[in-house]
What does this fold into?
Amino acid sequence: MDVRRPLPRALLVLGLLAVIVAACSGGGGSAWSGAPDLAKAKTEGATLVTYGMPDDWANYGAIIQAFCAKYAIAGCVHQDTDMTSAQEIQRYDAEKNNPVAIFSDIGLAYGPIASTKGVVPDYLPPGADQLPSNLKAQAGKGGWVATFVGVPSILVNLDALKAKNLQPPADWADLAKPEFKGLVGVRTPGQAGEGDAFFMALVTSTGGSWGSFDSGIALAKKIAPNLAGQAGNADLAAKGEIPILIKYDFNNIAIAKALQAKNINTEVIIPSSGSIYAPSAMMVNGYNT
It folds into this structure.
């Protein structure tokens, strides 16, 4: 079940893309305060370089193509290097004298880190005033806003588990069963928003809360020996090398559809003890003006 509402999310991201590309088309230090150069934006927007926004992540590929069609941008090439939120911030800083990416998708918790690091400009898109204060940068420390939410979920390759005589996990705690050793893929908490969301799902499902992490830490320690050492993807899930993926629901649903098209039986599970709504955000590269 996809618990998001994809049309409003797509419209919001389209709007953000438009104002970000337009803002990036200004000149020098005044790029974020002066009027956007829309003609230049159309030219520069023909090649959109991003970090952490591959075409199959949150359907960004289709969204960017819709953006280019809406604004009649010719060419419209999307170039992305997939990274964690922490890596994106580090790359912005490392490339500040020769910036590459225009904007990136990040976990919400990494927005304030980007602001503190100084890699985002003092800029918020029109309409950001409608967002609660915890879903956007603070005044004077702009450059990122919340865009949509994902729900941490479990995808399983049922055929691969059946071949190993294993039953699919129904809850987070099931991931700690010794028979799943090396079969669970998840992005690293503390480096990626998706990994952080997974950990917070463990916390809340065990009765913990923000600021009271002990129960989640205890469960995470039990699950840790079963982790594959990498996040996993559709290809590794299809091969059965990492048949259990912990990802946002929209990513797992997309992977499940891709595997089902290859006649591989899959299932996307929202654990019985519950999960969380985890906001993501978009940040713009303050050095790319």
Observations:
- The beta strands are 47-51, 77-81, 103-107, 144-150, 152-157, 184-186, 244-248, 266-269, 278-284.
